Automatic annotation (TrEMBL):
Adenine glycosylase active on G-A mispairs. MutY also corrects error-prone DNA synthesis past GO lesions which are due to the oxidatively damaged form of guanine: 7,8-dihydro-8-oxoguanine (8-oxo-dGTP). Its cofactor is [4Fe-4S] cluster. It holds the Pfam family HHH. It comes from Pelobacter propionicus (strain DSM 2379 / NBRC 103807 / OttBd1). One of its GO terms (biological process) is mismatch repair. This is Adenine DNA glycosylase.
Length: 299
């Protein structure tokens, strides 16, 4: 049984992990993983497109909600080309229920760039992956590990929870910079894919057993309520624009019972972000999400 207090003391006294500690740590994480499997459809594939879809969907969205949409998404957009050439409105309709619609448009822009600039060939290096629209260090490294088996160190919320729990016992304000040496030192280079799945599952279990250790991270931010937020207004506005193409700002404000100023401000933001476009005096869902992107229906 690993002792967080003892591991914390040993690590901070030595400033590094010895081989025996790394072995014991991996053994404990893998033991839990093999005894408590969490079946997920994206864990059954190494297709980089499928992995990218799952990673983007899982950002700030619960696993069970993603499971339901993931299969539907890949049935509707089975390849990069299908997503790249699909109408934005079709994507946004399918995305409803996942929230954070910016992720949807970023995913489509990724598909467009792969389809056009990479001629349909999925990028395989961290540099190329991070050059995709909206893809940051975490997502690039997660795709590299899960799709291509590359031993790239990265941190997400459940991984963060594990390392704070074991190596920063009862400490507060822990930064990812402090955790990264531990992530690198314990990384199973022979099987990074399953190692990261095991870490994530262990982190989920820790949150069930203890007050979330991840809250002791300096990066922890409490998510604000959706109800009554500007995010909710934006979501309702997008639905209304989809249902009533060409709707006028005054009509939109009336339908949503929202302030005209807030509606106009959000329409301008949604237009800048590539969601909507002006049609006469009204607004509709944009037909092309980025310069040079295809705007014809997929075949």
């Amino acid at each position: 049984m690993l002792s967080p207090q003892r591991l914390t003391e040993q690590y901070h006294a030595a400033g590094e992990l010895d081989a025996a500690t790394v072995t014991a740590f991996r053994r404990a994480i893998y033991r839990h993983f093999h005894a408590n499997p969490r079946p997920m459809p994206w864990r059954e594939t190494s297709d980089p497109y499928h992995i990218l879809v799952s990673e983007v969907m899982l950002q700030q969205t619960q696993v069970e909600r993603v499971k339901a949409k993931y299969a539907q998404f890949l049935e509707t957009f089975p390849t990069v080309r299908h997503l790249a050439t699909a109408p934005l409105e079709e994507l946004l309709r399918l995305w409803q229920g996942l929230g954070y619609n910016r992720r949807a448009i970023a995913l489509k822009r990724c598909a467009e760039q792969i389809h056009i600039l990479h001629e349909g060939n999925f990028p395989t290096t961290i540099h190329e992956l991070q050059n995709l629209p909206g893809i940051g260090p975490y997502t690039a490294r997660a795709v590299a590990a899960f799709a291509f088996g590359l031993p790239e160190p990265f941190i997400e919320t459940n991984i963060r929870t594990v390392f704070i729990h074991f190596f920063f016992h009862k400490q507060e304000g822990i930064s990812d910079r402090q955790l990264m040496p531990l992530v690198g030192a314990t990384l199973d280079h022979s099987d990074p894919r399953h190692w990261y799945y095991a870490l994530m599952d262990y982190g989920v279990r820790l949150k069930q057993l203890y007050p979330n250790p991840g809250r002791r991270s300096s990066h922890h931010v409490r998510q604000s309520p959706f109800k009554g937020s500007n995010r909710e207004l934006r979501s309702r506005m997008l639905r209304a624009v989809m249902e009533c193409p060409g709707i006028l700002p005054d009509e939109l404000a009336k339908v949503l019972e929202a302030e005209r100023g807030a509606v106009e401000k959000n329409l301008q933001a949604l237009a800048r972000e590539g969601f909507v476009e002006q049609r006469g005096d009204g607004f509709g869902i944009r037909t092309c999400t980025s310069p040079g992107a295809p705007d014809t229906p997929r075949r």
